[in-house]
TrEMBL record, chain A:
GO cellular component, one term: endomembrane system
Alphabetical GO biological process terms: ATP synthesis coupled electron transport
Family: Belongs to the complex I subunit 2 family.
Species assigned in the record: Microbispora cellulosiformans
PANTHER family per record: NADH DEHYDROGENASE
Protein name, as recorded: NADH-quinone oxidoreductase subunit N
Keyword NAD: yes
UniProtKB/TrEMBL annotation, chain B:
EC number annotated for this UniProt entry: 7.1.1.-
Subcellular location: Cell membrane; Membrane
Keyword vocabulary terms for this entry: Cell membrane, Membrane, NAD, Oxidoreductase, Quinone, Translocase, Transmembrane, Transmembrane helix, Transport
Broad class of the protein's primary localization: membrane
Pfam families to which the protein is assigned, alphabetical: Oxidored_q2 (PF00420)
Gene: nuoK
A cellular component annotation (GO) from this entry: NADH dehydrogenase complex
GO molecular-function terms, A-Z: NADH dehydrogenase (quinone) (non-electrogenic) activity; quinone binding
Protein family: Belongs to the complex I subunit 4L family.
Signal peptide start and end residues: none
Designated name of the protein: NADH-quinone oxidoreductase subunit K
TrEMBL record, chain C:
This protein's UniProt keywords: Membrane, Transmembrane, Transmembrane helix
Taxon lineage: Bacteria, Bacillati, Actinomycetota, Actinomycetes, Streptosporangiales
Name of the molecule in the record: NADH-quinone oxidoreductase subunit L
Encoding gene per record: nuoL
Segments forming domain NADH:quinone oxidoreductase/Mrp antiporter transmembrane: 144-433
Species annotation: Microbispora amethystogenes
Domain NADH-Ubiquinone oxidoreductase (complex I) chain 5 N-terminal: 87-128
Residues passing through the membrane, by range: 12-33, 45-68, 88-115, 127-144, 190-208, 257-275, 287-306, 326-346, 381-402, 422-442, 463-485, 505-528, 611-629
Keyword Transmembrane belongs to the record: yes
């Protein structure tokens, strides 16, 4: 501390994918400020899609050029193999989710207007639209990119907030069922803020323990600092709370069904895919890199969390009567299956196997879940999307193609062979078995069997029940929605039938593990 | 010496946490969350002192800014739901359940 | 001569052999998913897919002929589902390509015929979708290079057969017949499945190549067990004793289905399975012996049933059973019999399809009347049908120089060299064939008119008669082409092996002459009973033997007494225990999970503060757990 502060060096090229997304988000804000109302949508959509595609191209280019072996930006951000893979995944999933967004159908015209009030009437007449949805979404995606790449806990915290804050807002913007949507936003916001306070407190304690928030330095300190273990353990637990909350692991899962149900369905799709991927990336980095030397201590804890999550997700899903809530519980259960892979650490080869299995699972699950929510957007009745399962009875007789696709997604969730879901589970469970977590895998398989029950129940309902007389109609999908369903179905088939290329890719991404 | 500050920070954090659990008014709940963040800040500054580096103090500024952003978002959401329901009680927002 | 090595292949028509399966599958998918929109062109699409598949098969065949005989077993790697997990490929060799040509060739003709036959059916599109599905599944069955894919195809043809037998669901008899076929086939499939498990347990693989290469290393007891289990599967699919009962009822399906599935192709899958699994049977003499006994018993049983049926299709179905019995008999002998088994299978495919379609043409003309006692004298009104049917008839009874003469006599002579008792029984079967087939022809086309007053028979349209003509050309010449000069045996040898010394065909050996004489006696006897004499409109009561034959040799009664009744008791017993024990457990478990779920979801109160509490407590538990674990 000699009075001069050296300017940090920042590898702009490495961070380019993120910067493109953030840049586009800021341009989007400027568009909101200066472009006339009728032009905004026409500017936003291409801007959003192009920036996501561009960021994806930059990430691919980076991966082809060679994966850096050192963290970037003075050790704050690590752009390594897993990070690039996760970036690519998030960008593709975000791109697909954006295709689902048709603001005039899913998003409220004027969020501030009271439901049923004159202002709302007027906003309908004026065909007002919250085109802020696009820049908000880009900010959230930027946060998702930064979160799993954050190599120190402060950056992780900032990324967590950058990712979450826009999502809180987006949750409250559903066009129909305003009360539910607002409630979802409030719940998500309060609980999210609550849990990130835990994350921050954990950061503070670890800072106190190690003298730094840099993950590598924390890991170094694990061996050398003595006598402050309580600080370390409680700090690690608090960090875990913040991360497990985002994943929706039990006992921090309570927000997930409510928020997934109340949010506009395209946003639910983005949360269920992108946020989950980002949160798992961050969890892996924090616990494998920062607390890697402590794995004998956190593995038993996660063991319990994983079991609880799988069981709660699978069992609670059985009695759900709302399709979105059911998918939310399914997402919780899948979070549990993924946690099984997080625990399967060991030798370097074992870590690589577990990590590549997880990466594959995330991609497979992300696509399938976006596709499933896209189908949900298409089944509507007078009050908007038909969420209640009884409304889905006999859908297979009315629109066999749509119901068939949805059934296929459900089978993929259940992990039937020749769908992507099978191989994701197979890879993760196999890694867990060779990592010595056999009991966990047994619980996982039983939970999968229970979960398969309610997936099949929906299929039976769709195909073997008589349709209700005033049942919902299936709207003709917009080009975007059709594309999303098509892409998701294609990905689910291709990854289920030819998993090898993606598995190789995940393996090579996981080869170097995380840089320190 | 610094231990007192840490105890105070822990107490503030706990008070904030319990406040979230027991208070009904969304604004107060939210203020309790802010209290938790500030407890973190206190801990950061204390640890910075203890560890003899400035990182903790820098982090405190970051946290303030994030907290400010959170206030913006949070108040927007809470005000909207207050206008709709004429109530800021978090217990009234319980349509989504089971 | 041992079978040749399998060579990995790519390129050309053989490399694209998967198209054979894919094309009809796509056709079926389009027709089923497209719904009513495809009604207008559905039948044409179905025909197109079948013909295209035939074209690929023919091109592959030509390419195969261009290769040296020792290099004619081509493996095509199709799909490698994660190395080490599962691998699927196709095997194009002389055996599978023969089947492909038969399935797609005869299949295409039957598709074309069905355009006319099903013209007035509102569900014609669905019919073609099922036909296409059947062709795809059958091709998968014969092209698979491992038992798993074979089993998938095996179940696929079973499904298509079920759907097609019950195609006219509005007829209760059709629905029952479909169910019966399904259930009886399940018995066979179960045997096959256990056989596959045994193979996997023994060889740790289900790929043909690896299984057969190691077959000689397994103990003969194991091979016998596998062979017998595979035979159970073959009996189910090929309607061999004791699993024959479904085939006669299966005639409830539309006649083109009977021709394609229940005469020409699917029912021969059992023969294919036995021939394909040759290396296993060659290590298990007992299993081979059982195969030959089943074959002989079935060929006699089928022939006897055929003598007593008044329903034209059921008489033909009995004949099908009987002819497949010949094939199974030959297949049980080993490499010496394989070529004749397959050759007879192919010629049978032609002349039996020809006769079934001819029967369909007759029914079409007679307002779907199937009772032959109400036919008679149709040769004048339906000349083309009569001519083609007559050719099929002459072929099946083994009239000299027609197809059946070469292939069936080939089988009889080979069997005679192998075992004289079996040989003479086969000759006897040929004599009975001469009788019942002549009876069928005389009752239908000769004698006096015994038509219903409403019947106005007429010749069928060209779209139905042309396939008949083409099939009857095959029925005339194919046998001589295949058998003379051992052409087919030489062709097939790389795939299934062949005896060291090729047999030479004696047209007028002692056995051949005896067969001919017996057939002639049968035919003449039939002429006096049914051609020259008056045929009573109602079947006379007849002797005990007649009743015996009419009741399908009491097959159903036997099934009922032996399996159904005890089965019912067993079921009742099982249901009793199931309700008390197993079900209680399962239901209890399900109810328990459901109840837990119902109670647990009450925790999700909807109050944000209670969620916060769960987070708070969770954090406390997590921290506590950490402290405990860390301080251990």
């Amino acid at each position: 501390m000699n009075g001069t502060i050296e300017a940090p060096t920042i590898e702009y090229a490495l961070l380019a994918p993120m910067l493109v997304v953030f840049g586009a988000a800021i341009v989007g804000v400027l568009v909101e400020a200066f472009a006339p109302r009728y032009l905004r949508s026409a500017i936003h959509l291409p801007l959003t899609l192009l920036s996501l595609a561009g960021a994806f191209a930059l990430a691919v280019w980076q991966a082809l050029k060679g994966v850096p072996t050192k963290p970037a930006a003075m050790g704050a951000v690590a752009v390594d193999g897993p990070a690039l893979f996760i970036w690519g995944t998030i960008l593709v999933l975000a791109f697909v989710s954006v295709l689902l967004i048709k603001d005039e159908e899913h998003f409220v015209g004027s969020a501030a207007a009271l439901p049923g009030s004159a202002e709302e009437e007027q906003s309908l007449v004026e065909r007002a639209a919250h085109t802020e949805v696009y820049p908000l979404l880009l900010f959230a995606v930027g946060g998702m990119l930064l979160f799993p790449a954050a190599n120190d806990l402060l950056v992780a915290f900032v990324a967590l907030e950058v990712m979450s804050l826009p999502l809180y807002l987006l949750c409250g913007l559903a066009r129909r069922r305003r009360l539910l949507s607002q409630e979802a936003a409030v719940k998500y916001f309060l609980l999210g803020a609550f849990s990130s306070a835990f994350f921050l407190y954990g950061t503070a304690l670890l800072y106190g323990y190690a003298g730094s928030v840099d993950l590598a330095k924390i890991n170094l300190a694990l061996g050398s600092v003595g006598g402050q273990d309580t600080l370390l353990y409680i700090g690690a637990a608090m960090l875990g709370v913040g991360l497990l909350f985002k994943i929706g692991a039990a006992p921090f899962q309570a927000w997930k069904p409510d928020v997934y149900q109340g949010s506009p369905t395209p946003i639910t799709a983005l949360m269920a895919s992108g946020t989950l991927v980002a949160a798992f990336g961050a969890l892996l980095r924090v616990f494998w890199v920062g607390l890697g030397g402590l794995d004998w201590d956190w593995r038993p804890v996660f063991y319990g969390v994983a079991i609880l999550t799988m069981v709660v997700g699978a069992i609670l899903a059985i009695t759900q009567t709302d399709i979105k809530r059911m998918l939310a519980y399914s997402s919780i259960a899948h979070g549990g299956f993924l946690l099984v892979g997080v625990i399967a650490t060991g030798s370097a080869a074992q870590n690589t196997a577990a990590l590549s299995g997880l990466l594959f699972y995330l991609v497979a699950y992300g696509f399938t879940t976006v596709g499933a929510f896209a189908v949900v957007t298409m089944v509507r009745d007078a009050g908007g999307e038909a969420w209640h399962l009884s409304r889905w009875a006999g859908l297979g007789k009315r629109s066999p193609l749509l119901a068939g696709t949805f059934a296929f997604f459900l089978l993929a969730f259940a992990g039937i062979p020749l769908t992507s879901g099978f191989f994701g589970k197979y890879a993760v469970f196999q890694a867990a078995v060779s990592g010595g977590a056999l009991p966990l895998v047994i619980v996982g398989v039983v939970a999968s069997a229970v979960a398969a029950f309610f997936y099949v129940r929906v299929i039976v309902l769709m195909f073997f029940s008589d349709p209700a007389a005033d049942g919902p109609s299936v709207v003709l999908p917009s080009r975007g929605t059709a594309a999303v369903v098509g892409i998701a179905a294609l990905a689910t088939v291709v990854l289920g039938v030819f998993p090898q290329p993606l598995l190789d890719l995940a393996h090579s991404a996981a080869q170097s593990l995380f840089v320190r | 010496m610094t231990t007192h500050y840490l105890v105070l920070s822990a107490l503030l954090f706990a008070i904030g946490g319990v406040g979230v659990l027991v208070r009904r008014n969304a604004i107060v709940v939210f203020m309790c969350v802010e209290l938790m963040l500030n407890a973190c800040n206190l801990a950061f500054v204390t640890f910075a002192r203890q560890n003899g580096n400035l990182d903790g103090q820098l982090i405190a500024f970051f946290v303030m800014i994030v907290a400010a952003a959170e206030v913006v978002i949070g108040l927007a959401i809470i005000v909207t739901i207050f206008r709709t329901r004429r109530s800021a009680s978090v217990d009234d927002a319980s349509l989504l359940k089971y | 001569m041992e079978p040749a090595e399998i060579i990995q292949h790519s390129g050309g028509a053989i490399g694209a052999a998967w198209l054979m399966i894919a094309l009809p599958l796509v056709g079926a998918a389009i027709l089923l998913l497209g719904g009513r929109r495809t009604d207008r062109f559905g039948h044409l699409l179905g025909v197109l897919m079948a013909v295209a598949s035939f074209a690929v098969a023919a091109l592959s065949f030509v390419q195969l002929l261009g290769l040296a005989p020792g290099e004619r077993r081509r493996g095509i790697e199709l799909y490698d589902f994660v190395p080490g997990l599962a691998k699927v490929g196709l095997l194009v060799d002389p055996l599978s390509i023969s089947f492909c040509l038969l399935i797609t060739g005869v299949g295409s003709l039957i598709h074309i015929y069905s355009i006319g036959y099903m013209a007035h059916d509102p569900n014609r599109r669905r019919f073609f979708a099922y036909l296409n599905l059947f062709v795809a599944a059958m091709l998968l069955l014969v092209l698979a290079d491992n038992y798993v894919a074979l089993f998938v195809g095996w179940e696929g043809v079973g499904l298509a057969s079920y759907l097609l037998i019950g195609f006219w669901q509005h007829k209760p008899s059709a629905a029952t017949a479909a169910k019966k076929a399904f259930i009886v086939n399940r018995v066979g499939d179960f045997g096959l499945l256990i056989g596959l498990f045994t193979i996997f347990a023994t060889f740790h693989t289900l790929a043909f190549n690896d299984v057969f290469a190691n077959a000689s290393k397994a103990s003969s007891g194991t091979l016998t067990a596998i062979g017998l289990l595979l035979l159970v599967g073959a009996c189910g699919k090929s309607a061999q004793l004791p699993l024959q009962s479904w085939l006669l009822d299966a005639m409830e399906g539309p006649t083109p289905v009977s021709a394609l599935i229940h005469a020409a192709t699917m029912v021969t899958a059992g023969v294919y399975l036995i021939v394909r699994s040759g290396p296993i049977y060659q290590g298990a003499e007992t299993a081979q012996l059982v195969v030959t006994i089943v074959g002989v018993a079935t060929l006699l049983a089928g022939a006897i049933i055929g003598t007593a049926k008044d329903d034209i299709k059921k008489a033909l179905a009995g004949s099908t059973m009987s002819q497949i019995g010949y094939m199974v008999l030959a297949a049980g002998i080993g490499p010496a019999g394989y070529a004749f088994a397959i050759a007879h299978l192919i010629t049978h495919g032609f002349f039996k399809a020809d006769m079934f379609l001819g029967a369909g043409s007759v029914m079409h003309a007679m307002n779907d009347e199937v009772d032959m006692r109400k036919y008679g004298a149709l040769r004048k009104v339906m000349p083309v049908t009569f001519a083609t049917f007559a050719i099929g008839y002459l072929a099946i009874i083994g009239f000299p120089l027609l197809s059946g003469y070469f292939t069936k006599d080939g089988i009889i002579e080979t069997v005679m060299e192998h075992n004289a008792v079996l040989g003479w029984l086969a000759v006897l079967g040929a004599g009975i064939t001469g009788f019942y087939m002549s009876r069928l022809v005389f009752m239908t086309f000769f004698g006096a008119k015994r038509w219903e007053p409403t019947a106005h028979p007429h010749e069928s349209p060209a779209v139905m008669t042309w396939p008949l003509v083409i099939l009857s050309v095959g029925a005339i010449g194919l046998g001589a082409f295949l058998v003379l000069g051992n052409r087919f045996m030489t062709f097939l040898a790389p795939a299934v092996g062949a005896p060291e010394e090729m047999p030479s065909f004696h047209p007028f050996s002692l056995t051949g002459l005896a067969t001919l004489a017996l057939v002639a006696v049968g035919a003449v006897f039939a002429w006096f009973r049914y051609g020259a004499a008056e045929v009573p409109a109602v079947a006379p009561r007849g002797s005990f033997l007649t009743t015996f034959a009419r009741r399908d040799l009491y097959g159903d009664a036997l099934n009922e007494a032996l399996f159904m009744r005890p089965g019912q008791w067993l079921t009742r017993l099982a249901v009793f225990f199931d309700n008390r024990g197993v079900d209680g457990l399962v239901n209890g478990l399900a109810a328990g999970i459901g109840g837990t779920s119902g109670r647990l979801r009450r925790i999700q109160t909807g109050f944000v503060r209670s969620y916060a509490l769960s987070i708070f407590l969770g954090a406390a538990i997590l921290a506590g757990a950490w402290l405990v674990v860390g301080n251990l």
